[in-house]
Structures are given as structure tokens and as C-alpha cells.
Amino acid sequence: MNTNSENRLSRDLVLQQWLNDNQAALIAAIAILGGSTGSIAKFNAIMQIIIDAAAAAGVDITGYAVNKLNKRNALVASADLVSSIIESFASETEDAVLERMFHMPPSYLAGLRDSDLHLKSLSIFKKATEIDTATTPATPLAGYGLGSTDLGDLNTKIGLYLGVIQSPRMAQVTKSVSLDVLNANFNKAEVLIDKLKKQLAPLRQINSVLHGEFVGIILINDNAATHSSSPDAEGEVGNPSYVVVSLPAGIDIASSSFRIEISDGPNCFATFNSNPPTSLPGGLSAQVINNGTPRTLTSALLNYDAALRPELILFTDGDPACTYKLWVE
């Protein structure tokens, strides 16, 4: 995982812990408010998926590659030993064809591609087995240095190498899929957090202490995923106009989230819309970004629709102009 993903995981774990620690009080308060606790249960379920995906996404690909290299080196040594014994046997029995087949420079096996090394080693094992079982006297290769366990050892190493031949590639696939799952569920968690904000807004009427803690946790949650990298877009939102954000080319907007920071001015509103936009600030429910309080918002929360609302629009509430920075996640 990158630093931003780790920050998102940390911030959501903080919120999950608070929800679980205060579950009984929250359930009682929500019952008084006439609401449902479904969002809390869903958030916990999504967090478990996130935790599992984060563990899988942290797989060290290097470990797989090192394991394969070790198995490869062991196979090369074993196959080279048996091959040289076959060559000696062929030379002594004046089998020129067999001698040429198994005359291999020291670097030959080591230079083969994965699949070729596996097939060549298998052919060496099969030829040695054939000679030892079809020649009189029995096991003639023993007289040329083949030990009683050498063929079995080669066969074992062939099997072990075959087992890890695809390991780094499969680990990379696992990691890639896990990152996709991770990002998708981060976005789902963001949607549920937004629902919890609205659902628990009236909480201060019946439990001001609990409401104050929740607001504090949410403030940490919204600020946790800080960015040290340069923003993907930045500029000024004039008054009383709007700005169409120029997003990076090639991104998948539908699966992306957008972190927006506002400074040097009033609060700002964000939504996907047409260009020029219609029904601003009315119509669609735009997301507010408070000055000094960054937010990370999914494209779904921002009303994205590739056909009807393809442009990300920022606008103010009529106060003086503000500046913005935006990162695509």
C-alpha cells in the first residue's frame, strides 16, 4: 500500500473503534431519533473487507522471487550433475548422439528461461531413468558417479521448481486485485461515513457529549489522509462564478475519489455537472468543503454521470473568491 492508502486505513480504523466502543449508547440514541443502526453494521462489515484486502495488498513480491531463485539454483545444480554423468556414460559407451545431446557448458542450464529449464531438467531425469532401467547391468550410471539418491533428488527439485515458476506473477496478480478491492471499499466506507454524519447530526439534542466526540473523530477522519505530493489540480474559484476543474487525462472518474482542500476564502461547493453547469447551487445536492477542513469524496457522492454530468464543478456561496487544491485518489 502507498502512504495515502495507509492513512485512509488508519483514519477509518479510528472511527470504527469509536463506533464499537460507543455502540450501546449510539443504538439507544438512534432509537430515540427514530433512525436505523444499519449504517454502523455496514461500516463494520466493509472495514473487515478493507483489513483483509490491506493484508493481501501488502504481500512482499520480493519474497516470492527469492524463493523461486533459490529453487532454480538448486535445480540447475542437480540437473547439471546428472547431465554430466549421462555425458560421461555416453562417451564411454561411444554413443555420439547421446553425448552431443547432454554436452552442456556450465552456464547453459542457468541461462534457460523458466519453462525451458523445467522441460530440460525433466528430459535429463527421464533419460537417466531410462538408462538405469533399460541397461544391463542394472543402474550403470552408478559407475559414473550417480548416487543412490541423486535421481530422486532431481525429481523432487523439478517438482518444487514447477510449483514456484509462476509465484511472483501470481503474487503480483493477488496484490493488484487486493488493491482494487481496497480502493473500492474505501469509497464505500466514505459513502457510509457521509450517511453517518447526516444521521447523527441531531445527536447533540439528546447526548451532547457523544455528539462532540463524534464530531472530533470525523474532523480527524477528514484530515488524516494528508498529502505531501503536488495536487493534480489547483486554482481559484471566483465570485460569484464557478470553475470547471481540469482533471488528469486517462483517469477512471467513476472509480476515483477526490480530495479537495479550500483556503483563503469562503466555503466551497463541489459537484459533477454539465459545462456550462445548470441549476447551481440548486438542483443536485452539492458537497460542501469547509475552509481549512479537507474532504475526500467519491464520484458517486459528487453526482458523477458520464453522459449527463461529466465535469467537476466548484463554486462558492457568493462570498469572496477562494483557492482550491485537488488530488485524485
Keywords for this structure?
single chain, 329 residues, alpha+beta, Jelly Rolls, 4-stranded antiparallel beta sheet
Kindly describe this structure.
It is a single chain. The chain is of the alpha+beta class and 329 residues long. The protein has two domains: 1-226, no CATH class; 233-328, Jelly Rolls (Sandwich). 53% of the residues lie in helices and 12% in strands. The chain is built from nine helices and eight strands. The protein has helices spanning 3-21, 23-33, 38-57, 61-92, 96-101, 114-134, 150-164, 167-199, 208-223, and strands at residues 233-237, 242-244, 257-263, 268-273, 287-289, 295-298, 311-316, 322-328. The chain has a four-stranded antiparallel β-sheet. It has a four-stranded antiparallel β-sheet with strand order 2-7-4-5, with no helix packed on it. Helix 4 runs parallel beside helix 6 (114-134). The longest helix has 33 residues, at 167-199. It is elongated. Mean pLDDT is 78; it is low at 224-228.
Task: Please describe the topology of this protein.
Elements: H1 3-21, H2 23-33, H3 38-57, H4 61-92, H5 96-101, H6 114-134, H7 150-164, H8 167-199, H9 208-223, E1 233-237, E2 242-244, E3 257-263, E4 268-273, E5 287-289, E6 295-298, E7 311-316, E8 322-328
Antiparallel strand pairs: 1-8, 2-7, 3-6, 3-8, 4-5, 4-7
Helix pairs in contact: 1-3, 1-8, 1-9, 3-8, 4-6, 4-7, 4-8, 6-7
